[in-house]
Design a protein that fits this description.
Elements: E1 4-5, H1 8-13, E2 16-21, H2 22-35, E3 41-45, H3 47-51, H4 55-64, E4 69-72, H5 75-83, E5 90-92, H6 101-106, E6 110-113, H7 116-125, E7 130-137, E8 145-146, H8 150-158, E9 163-169, H9 180-195, E10 205-208, H10 210-215, E11 223-226, E12 248-253, E13 256-260, E14 265-266, E15 272-273, E16 278-283, H11 293-296, E17 300-303, E18 306-311, E19 319-322, E20 334-341, E21 344-346, H12 358-363, E22 371-375
Parallel strand pairs: 2-22, 3-4, 3-11, 4-5, 5-6, 6-7, 7-8, 7-9, 9-10, 10-11
Antiparallel strand pairs: 1-22, 2-12, 12-20, 13-16, 14-15, 16-19, 17-18, 17-20, 18-19, 20-21
Length: 384
Amino acid sequence: MLRIPLEAAPALAAPAWIDIDLDAIAHNVRAFRRLLAPSCRLVAVVKANAYGHGMVRVARTALAHGAVELAVANVHEGAHLRDAGITQPILIAGPVAPSEASAVVQHALVPSLGSVELARALANASRRYLPVHIEVDTGMARHGVPATSLAPFVDSIGRRGRLAIAGVFTHFAASSLAEEASMRDQLATFTAAVDGVRELRSVPRHACNTLGALVLTKAHLDAVRVGGGLYGFDPLLGRGAVDLRPALSLKARLLSVREVPAGAPVGYGGTFVCTRPSRLGLVPLGYADGLVRELWNGGSVLVRGVRAPIVGVVSMNQTVVDVTDVPAAMHGDEVVLLGAQGDQCVRAEERVRAGGSVYEVTALLRSSLPRRYLSSSVLAGRIS
């Protein structure tokens, strides 16, 4: 299927850019929508510039294909979506400082409550009923009201007058299938805590992230929040009920190719030394663009459909790749750092180190890198 660049010129004129396949985003949203009961709302998580994919374009695509609400990390992100003309509900699924209460009200955002101080500030800032969600901490020890303190907290909200509890949720700590038991424990803690508060018994509930939505059907409740799965990151690695398609490709052009003798050191500190006469290609991307050394040193890229290793340490704005085994490689050749070229593919999962997250790989990509949005959809062509 032909994917049409919606705004090709800025990206193609640049020596490095990101391609975002909006058809893949749409496919992933529809896949999760089919997984859910009709009454279960799909909330698209677009925080951190949509995990590096571009917040506004992704939000509009997700809303056009089955999502009914959005979730962000902070007031700034929510305000950005409002400034772009998005009118659907936007949940701030992270902490909000009491000093930001007026901005929450101004931009008609839905805050997550985790403290009496924020509740007080929001009530003082609003002149009408303000919808809020209460986050219940069931095992993250990060943000939210401890499950054992939920009843008195809700009672304090009722005394605020202008706050309307529109939802109550928790956040699973699990990040792999091996932790399914902990998700079940958190769900039981959450359910017991909410059921124990009369004022919350008819309030919509949500708990699932991508992993939870895939493996814990009983936790779908009234809504699920899909983040990584929206972008094609599959915690089940293809063994689950949905086929997820990666949406992001990171590309550049070789700015030069030079020949060096055996024994030549490469990069800062000379940490890599060529063991043979070599041809080295220069890629105009570095750690300032999101190629964090801990993730990218020692990785590989694609040139003319062949894997070429990164040699030496990644510099601030440049990276060297060994194209000796790509004898026809030349100045101007396309380099694929993430994504497919020919029959080869470099997946973001390859860049993850022990204890890390695949989300780091794309979320850290420089927001000002040109992004080219591709789609075969007429609807997407109307996105601005």
